[in-house]
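WARN retry 2 of 3 for item q-0093 after timeout on previous attempt; input resubmitted unchanged.
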Amino acid sequence: MSTETSTAPETNGERAASADRPAFRYDAEMAGRIERKWQDHWEAEQTFHAPNPGEPGSEKPKFYLMDMFPYPSGAGLHVGHPLGFIGTDVLGRYLRMTGHNVLHPMGFDAFGLPAEQYAVQTGTHPRTTTEANIERYRAQLRQLGLGHDPRRSVSTTDIPFYRWTQWIFREIFEAWYDADAGRARPVAELRAEFENGTRTTPDGRPWAELSEGERRALIDGHRLAYISEAPVNWCPGLGTVLANEEVTPEGRSERGNFPVFRRNLKQWMMRITAYADRLADDLDRVDWPESVKAMQRNWIGRSEGARVRFPVAESSGGGTSISAAGAGEIDVFTTRPDTLFGATYMVLAPEHPLVDEIVPAAWPAGVDGRWTGGAATPADAVASYRAEAARKSELDRQESRDKTGVFTGAHAVNPVNGQEIPVFVADYVLMGYGTGAIMAVPGQDQRDWDFATAFGLPIVRTVDPGEGFEGEAFTGDGPAINSANDEVSLNGLGVEDAKRTITDWLASKGAGEGVVQYKLRDWLFSRQRYWGEPFPIVWDEHGPVALPADQLPVELPEVDDYSPKTYDPDDANTEPEPPLSRATDWVNVELDLGDGPKAYRRETNTMPQWAGSCWYYLRYLDPENDDRFVSAEAEQYWLGKDPAQAADDPGGVDLYVGGVEHAVLHLLYSRFWHKVLFDLGHVSSEEPFRRLFNQGYIQAFAYTDARGTYVPAEEVVETPDGFTWNGEPVTQEYGKMGKSLKNVVTPDEMCERYGADTFRLYEMSTGPMDASRPWSTRDAVGSQRFLQRVWRNLVDEETGETTVVDGEAGEEIRRALHKAVAGVREDVSALHYNTAAAKLIELNNALTKRGAPVEREIAEPLVLMLAPLAPHIAEELWQKLGHDGSLAYAPFPEADERYLVADTVEYPIQVNGKVRSRITVAADAGQDEIRTAALADEKIAAVLDGGEPKKVIVVPGRLVNVVR
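OK item q-0093 returned
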């Protein structure tokens, strides 16, 4: 919003004085010159290069400080993006000044859809666009004076980087999870156990009797990275699989508004579920916000229950020929086995592989018309319903209150009472959760109640809801009812006792057993994209084969068309054809993988954007290493467990700062990759990020005209009656800063108008780091004026020379200084930069009030304390004070305890509860001395008018209360 006129940049170099502006006044133009000067100095002198172990400087206490790296979009940064970057820079500068070896790197998460979309539209190679965007970001970040180690910058799209991404994927592919050992082990060890007979094959045949294809399939079924039929969001109109976040609640693609179908397609998966317990348990070992831990625990969704087997009734179409279910059974996981007697029907997910097996040729006699969907046969009903369900997103299926479904024509047998109950297909059951099948207990589950009501199914309560409860499912606790057979009775038992009793009974009958289940699903790791890491995988007649490490990297080939093949948007029965599949010379190769030259076909999917971000923090440690993704020495030094801390310290980055929107996926995926690397002996730390901090967000006002159209916020004028744009009234609203709202302010604009130091100080002063805060460009002038006052207190604006003197400072200003030092140290260490800035302002105000000149013993600590927040002006002042080089490693001031103890204390004096005066006495004055001074005060004596008070109460250090 327009509120003032910016200072126009003038020529570089010296500036002539004008009648109203001295030649050496600190303003935007001078700030720009100072900032460019010191940015060039830091780069030339390699000021922020962090030594690795064994190098000079590595003997200092280390601190690994890291930001979540950005995606380099073509729009560049707006002022909301650098909030966390500036915050970490302030801490990093402070830590260097307090004697630490600080590693503070910055890189770019550069694979992804936007660059590929731009390539499809323009024909420009994604790498060209990406590299241009990265250079733009680097220039903007440099302009802010961020103290990154430039040697360690990486981009996930750099071929030397993604060579190691491929290598790590290969390690995961060549590993399996040994549940008995509780860790990942190399697949070679699993194969050896099958070969020597210490581990038996599923059907008991010796390894030597298995064919090569059977051996490969057996091993592949154990791998941590594997191929599986998985339900995915298939969009024929775009020719690609979409993430859930890319699908609207209406089941259409966000881009293009095409129909999206749930399909089972062969995809690469990561067996993250094998680590579910460790991922949940080790959250207790990291210093993360409790809200983030809770989100991860909920995402993992560990729950204890029972797996129950429901035999398919003999009268059902497939009967006992259902080999996929194991002797014609439907497996169900339930956390409430105590409600089994109330299961009156079953539901399979539309994608469940058993559906086709159990559907009979014709409807049973007397079938309820509500169950058939109007179809002539069960097969027709199921096919039609599947097509309908495929158009819905998972979110829509979960949140919809309208319960739909069709009868399969089959029945299953409830194992606790022998009743045959109908089996339905319904979209409120998802294949990815549990077993993709549920026993429906409408008396105890509202979704089941709604479905049973819609389809006229029986409702049997198994938990007593108490008197007067009716008309809906009862989900609370209570004694069991209606829950007994000839062998077991749950009636009268509480929920937990009933669970244990029925689970034991099921196990004794071979009808079920107690199990632990997770909401977490294995990680879908395939993308039908061009702009991503190629898999280090080739295919032969038996399946996938990992390329040897010496044949990496597998580079992306040049292609003419970056888009996947698209189809009729409504044709769900199509198959993905990734862009790489058209590079036939690249896809079809002859390779020698150790057993002679053979023909192979390369994997044509690419990895998701998450791949590089799973491990980039490791590459920062050793980015030039061609022999390992990180040396053992560098990893141990920067990430290793601290023996001085608690025994269960997991190691990891000392502080990781980023947005809470990455609380689950990125952080969970990174933890999974790191734990695999730990299990395989590649890293010494058990967690990637020891401490996590979520910064807040910058929000801004936006403005709409009478049509509801957003107008440029910077052109809006505030008037006594509201806001106008081009003379017309507009409506103010508050929201996230973004291009669509036309309220973006860029760091470039702020640096030009005020200077980078003002911008940094303003962002850090507007609130606590973990809180979101409003943006107001005009308010930055307050930070600029503070820096101008600091400059004027130390520099003559006419000559540019320092006015600081070498004399001794007085007692009062010394106390103000050391109070500020103690407070700033405490605040910066806690990331409370807004209060640290306030303490510096208070100290500088005391100097301004006292008047010039400022003594060196006050000036130098003030400059050093200012340096983390506003480093350029601090460097310039430090140089003017006679110091050579940078202050980046100058010792941060320490408070002298003598000046933190008050010599005197002010006491307010109350008479009958009302403050009438104040006195100042020595800090060590006794109660009698304080009482005497209070009664001798002129104002108190006048109130008492010669009379004696009934009582005088002295509260040490706080107040005196006189009672008349």
